[in-house]
Design a protein that fits this description.
Helix content is 33%, strand content 25%. With 592 residues, it is an alpha/beta fold. The chain starts with 7 loop residues before the first strand and ends with a helix.
């Protein structure tokens, strides 16, 4: 028996539809589509279960119809209203006389249905024929973007047309609300070097182009990350059991590595949000290649919620995350990918660092590359943002190399240089300078903005900057728990590598509620993502790089941001940024 895959899926507050199979270019096609009929049916079921006055109105004016017959009647009425006025419909079909006699109730039904549709997270996709190199053609890119725009305009037009034909007049105010898809993707199946256990992944399509209509507000079930990423000694077929029809792959460039990030459709909003965080890999980086890293998000049969496996034979690292509401948080996508990256960096002889790096050029002349190390909530990004705001008149360029995770390597002359991983940032709204999120709202993805640890995903740099390699001039540990006094200045430089290593190795911070930790906690090198899992090799690498920094004149110290101390969330990073600016001036030989 041959079964046909449905052209759309409705799951966990999300609507995902194949626009290639549900193509609508006229109001009639939209109103006759399977998806529209199911949305209406689900809406009627919802208002019936709530005992809504709108459902009572339908029941009273369609007395001969059973509940399951109401959907067809309402859909048919909408079709008529798309081309006729209410008065014309009454003269044509007396069946709708009573339903249209109380226009306010009918208008409220239309508004509530429209709002019901808009409350879904809506995803549109088009899949290209396999091995067509379809996605490399800019013409198809523009056609995909045009299709999304046409669908958005069509939904808005149909809603307005039906409303105007019902009430008999045009509104005085038109609100251009996002009524089509929130996010879209152009998909393509590409033959990568897929063998053995991984052959089940071969039919999962790659995202070749993504489309976002910001500002986008998402509401994942969780708003913090918990637990650790544990290593497993064996990867089995049972763990990788999945239905390719339910999965997509985001091919990410994580620094100079390629990562295939697979996700189940239930996590599509988080998976597509990766577009604001990582560069999408090119076709030639996928075709016939094996990835450096792989992540599968949404598997059923795992020995833990978040585990990873090092496949030494294939030369790749594989992250596995269980299908569970407990991991419905973007931080799991981001941090598992970066954990795999960090382990890969240690294998290459680099030192992974959990922190931020920025290149700063002063108007008076001189420049500096600053690295700030610290775990979540330590004040890295907040201090740099305060520096950008406070020293704007003195800084002519401030270029982010990495915002959360990077690695240290050596250049040809033996100096320590920094490399990034992401083109975007996943930052706490509460810790940003007031108004900053609204300045960047037109490019942003907001997550749970009404909850503790509300987050923002926003592009912050270009890919060629993160892989270039910038010489490190200043290296600071972000201390968010100590107050400032005569013995504890905002910035304190270390005299020896041993002094520096002791502070960085301790990884102390006051937990900010971004994870399940509380109080003063210690994390090895402020980096739970790969460093503890490969502690022995990490220790050797850290000693090598710290000694090299002291030998080559890098300023190494700690910066007291006070971000974890109540009442100092804004003033702490501000004070630290002032002292950091002075240190940069001294390094550049510029008078303050």
């Amino acid at each position: 028996m041959i079964t046909t895959k449905r052209p759309y899926t409705i799951t966990r507050g999300k609507v995902i539809f194949d626009y290639g199979r549900l193509y609508c270019d006229t109001p009639e096609k939209l109103l006759r589509s399977e998806l529209f009929e199911e949305i209406v049916d689900r809406f009627i079921e919802r208002i019936a279960s709530k005992g809504s006055p709108i459902f009572a109105y339908l029941k009273e004016n369609l007395p001969r119809l059973r509940r399951d017959e109401m959907t067809g009647a309402v859909v048919n009425l909408f079709r008529l209203l798309s081309s006729h006025t209410a008065e014309e419909i009454i003269s044509i079909n007396s069946e709708y006389r009573h339903l249209l006699s109380e226009k306010e109730y009918m208008y409220e039904l239309i508004e509530e249905l429209y709002n019901y549709w808009r409350r879904f997270e809506r995803f549109i996709f088009i899949e290209a024929p396999k091995r067509s190199r379809y996605s490399q053609n800019s013409l198809h890119h523009s056609q995909f973007i045009k299709a999304n725009e046409e669908f958005r305009n069509l939904v808005l037009y149909v809603y307005r047309r039906i409303s105007e034909n019902l009430i008999g007049k045009n509104p005085r105010v038109y609100r251009q609300l996002p009524a089509g898809a929130n996010m879209g993707m152009l998909l393509e199946k590409i033959d990568w070097y897929c063998t053995g256990l991984y052959s089940v992944l071969k039919e999962i399509p790659f995202i070749r182009l993504s489309l976002i209509e910001p500002p986008l507000i998402l509401y994942p079930r969780m708003n913090k990350r918990k637990g650790r990423f544990e290593e497993i000694g064996e990867l089995t077929e049972d763990m990788l059991r999945l239905n390719p029809d339910d999965w997509y792959c985001f091919p990410a460039k994580v620094g100079d590595l390629t990562a295939f990030i697979y996700f189940h459709k239930d996590f599509i909003s988080l998976g597509l949000s990766l577009s604001n965080l990582f560069e999408i890999a090119d076709y030639d980086e996928i075709d016939g290649r094996r990835p450096d890293l792989m992540l599968l998000f949404g598997l059923e049969d795992l020995p833990g919620d978040t585990v990873f496996y090092e496949d030494r034979e294939a030369g790749t690292l594989v992250g596995l995350i269980r299908h569970s509401e407990d991991v419905d948080y973007f931080g799991y996508f981001k941090k598992m990918t970066l954990t795999l990256h960090n382990i890969a960096m240690l294998r290459k002889g680099r030192l992974p660092v959990h922190g931020a790096m920025v290149y700063i050029r002063l108007k008076e002349g001189g420049e500096a590359n600053v690295v700030i190390i610290g775990d979540s909530g330590a004040g890295k990004s907040e201090t740099l943002e305060a520096l950008r705001t406070l020293a704007e008149e003195h800084i002519c360029e401030m270029r982010i190399i990495f915002d959360d995770m990077g690695s240290l390597g050596l250049d040809g002359s033996g100096r320590v240089v920094g490399y990034g991983t992401e083109i975007g940032a996943f930052v706490r709204l509460d810790d940003l300078q007031p108004g900053y999120a609204y300045e960047e709202i037109d490019r942003s993805i907001f997550m749970n903005p009404d909850k503790t640890n509300a987050r923002l995903i926003i592009p912050v740099t270009r890919y060629h900057h993160i892989i270039k390699g910038y010489q490190v001039d200043i290296m600071l540990y972000a201390n968010n728990y100590e107050q400032i006094d005569e013995d504890h200045p905002a910035i304190e430089l270390f005299e020896t590598p041993e002094d520096a290593l002791a502070v960085f190795r301790s990884g102390a911070r006051l937990a900010k509620g971004t994870t399940d930790e509380k109080g003063l906690v210690h994390t090895y090198f402020a980096n739970p993502f790969g460093a503890p899992q490969r502690k022995e090799v990490h220790e050797r690498s850290a000693e090598l790089y710290f000694r090299r920094m002291f030998e080559t004149g890098v300023k190494v110290g700690q910066m007291r941001t006070r971000l974890g101390i109540e009442g100092f969330e804004q003033i702490g990073p501000r004070t630290a940024s002032i002292e950091l600016f002075r240190l940069i001036q001294d390094l550049a030989g510029v008078d303050g």
